[in-house]
Sequence to fold (428 residues):
Amino acid sequence: MSRALALALLLAAPSARAATDVYIKLAGQGGAPLLPLALPPFIAEQADKADDALAAKSVSEVVRADLMLSRYFAILEDGPHYDGANLAAILPDWKKKGVSWLLLAKVSSASPRLTISAKLIDANSGEAVFERFYKQDAAYLRAACHRLSDDLVKQLTGKNGIAHTQIAFANDQTGHKEIYAMDYDGANLRQLTRDASIDLLPRFSPDRKLLAFTTYKEGNPDLFVLDLEHAARKPVSQEQGLNVAGGFSPDGTQLLMTLSRQRSPNLYVRSMADGSVTQLTQHFGADSSPTFSPDAGQVAFVSDRSGNPQIYVLDMTTQRAKRLTNLNWCDSPSWSPTGEWIAFAGRVNVRDKLDIYLVDVTGNQIRQLTRLEGSNENPSWSPDGRFLVFTSTRNGKKPELFVMDNDGSAPHRLAEIPGGSVTPNWSF
Fold:
């Protein structure tokens, strides 16, 4: 194994454990009971091989972190270890501790490949109800761990996990605003653009292969799409004036945009198949920040047509818009993947700092999620609708990335990143 790979394995576990500590004593969302899962340390395929032992420890730590962050499981680790052959001997002790399942895994790091052989054991029957084999380039250890974690979540809950997801955002640590991305838990930070300019408002496509963003590299706020697989970019809209992505439709066939075309900003939608552009609003005020509903039948957006910026919903069929809010200021709406709520940044009074709110699709319910903790902006939903990433200045003058539950509980800083971070977008 290379020294670089060894370093990557060493770094994987501490960052993951740090990200989960805030959750350890918390119950599942909505008071739902946590599923009791035994997690003995994963074992090395060859116990006398140092690289295998290191890889097994790192994989165990990352998977543990994922399962804790999922908020579905009560993880039990204080029990008999698995040596690869003693399952019958250790099951009675684990059953006494009240576990329903045991997750067991063997790890090999035969360079340049990492392999994980995992089994989920029913504690009552001793039978394997889930078996998976993962083979991955060792440099992408975390990706293999996230796949295992999400497969386990799907097996035991029937719901899609979010460990494989990414968060993109803009950050100014270089002295310029560039686009960055990282894993959902704040690890694996990487810089995606090096324009030495102002790059903002990244938006993932549903398959996470494309990232739309706005750049001032050529002096005008132009809209580009970055091909994440090939590190190539192509222009989407370079008209004079604003060219800003609102978001992709859930099926990836359409891209919402705000274009000014040297006039007031209005909403447009672009077909990703043929590049055709359709205007959605025609207003003398400013319409901006569009976000699709889960069925792409409606669009939430910000408009100042009534005076101050408020949240509106546009029906894509009738082209009729309905106002949902009546605050002093509203911005950056984000439609929940489950459809019930639209998150946004807003304030009640002109002297207030911005906070994160939810409004339902009728406009009859508004819930405030943050309060009296700096300025809180740019909410974006996790793909399962259970969490929100947002920016906050609660720790100082620079905005940082935070994550909280969809009811506003358990807020925590996502990662310690130099500079100020803005406009996050959680991938599908």
